[in-house]
Amino acid sequence: MLKEIYDVVVIGAGPSGLAAAISASRSKAKSILLVERDKRLGGILQQCIHPGFGLINFGEELTGPEYAHRYIQMLNNEEIDLLLDTTVLEIDVDKNITLTNTELGMIEIQSKAIILAMGCIERVRGNADISGFRPAGIFTAGTAQRLINISGYLPGKEIVILGSGDIGLIMARRCSLEGIKVKAVVEILPYPSGLKRNVVQCLEDFKIPLYLNHTVTFIHGKERLGGVTISEINDLNEIVRGTNKYIKCDTLLLSLGLIPECELIRGLNIEIDPKTNGPSVDNFMQTKIDGIFACGNVVQVYDLVDWVSNGGEIAGMGAALYSTGMLESPKRRVIFKPGKNISSVVPQVICDHRALESQGSITLRVEKPLINVRIEFNVDRKCIYRLKKKVAVPSEMLIIDLIKMKEELFNYKEIVVDAGQD
Prior knowledge:
Layout: E1 5-11, H1 15-26, E2 32-35, E3 51-53, E4 62-63, H2 64-76, E5 81-83, E6 86-91, E7 96-101, E8 105-116, E9 120-122, H3 125-128, E10 131-132, E11 138-140, H4 141-151, E12 158-162, H5 166-177, E13 181-186, H6 196-204, E14 210-211, E15 214-220, E16 227-232, E17 245-248, E18 251-254, E19 258-260, E20 292-294, H7 305-323, E21 333-338, E22 342-346, E23 349-351, H8 356-359, E24 361-366, E25 370-379, E26 382-392, E27 398-401, H9 406-409, E28 414-421
Parallel strand pairs: 1-2, 1-8, 2-5, 8-20, 10-15, 11-18, 12-13, 12-18, 13-14, 21-28
Antiparallel strand pairs: 3-4, 6-7, 7-8, 9-19, 15-16, 16-17, 21-23, 22-24, 24-27, 25-26, 25-28
């Protein structure tokens, strides 16, 4: 039976939402509702049939559906209400939620705490500003992945992939395995934007050419894609004359990056971090509105699904504590801001909760590849803590443990994180 009031409502049943719901239940939340707009649990994991999941959380290599199944089994052991094929239309500051369900119609419920786990969306052609026609045969990499792995359709016979993000790299391998000729992967940056292991396993092992400092500058074909023109890009992001190269293909896959799906909370007074495009959160994944938490790729785009699940577990614990009145208002807090060579810091705020020992870490991304890296925590341009890393690249997050600086952490209101090279 659907209740009118819940302790915790989780929106989204991907890896972060599943982990958050399970964590909230194990943290003694009395009533929990998990809402998913798809007809199945698992989110994006349903179409990620490649291995590489679960090495951190389960100590073995799993495919996406296998990883999701582990959490679905855990979910079935908890008393959690489910609403599938359900779309959340609106959330207000009083945590009233309006939903629509295919069988129940319009529903209104109230929750003591809400966890946002909506994931992210792909950037599309409009984000890339590519000249040319609008023929059939242009897909985002995620759409092509769903067509092949779930629907059983091949998007084309000869493919060019724009962007070297992880989904694009994985789709280069997947298309090759299905007999599709991958003509090239084109990346505007001077380095791949996906994980190193995916570059090796998906491109180098299949001898797929990677064009760095290049982009697609023209799309040919009116009814169906006939080919693309790629061109070299200089340091000023300008096309280098005389470098145009035509590649014949019938399909273009766009792997232009991911954006946290925050449309549902645009009307709320939740601070959006311009660096991550997701809501700013504290170390319990709570937003600026008390009782509304966020986790997973709606906060920032993670590298590994294991980290997505771990963030969901923290949000579930925080929401359960809040719903039972045990998440006290912090007496002290410190704001973290990205500085030189740092593109993002999450969480943006660390609060002086009693559970800091288990939530005392931040994740960083650097803006460009660095060697012999020096990470500095600065207050008024004075370094209060420093650590070193051999290598840092934008495609791989750095997880920094703050326990060593816990004693002096809350002596400051704002800390700027910088990165440099020795």
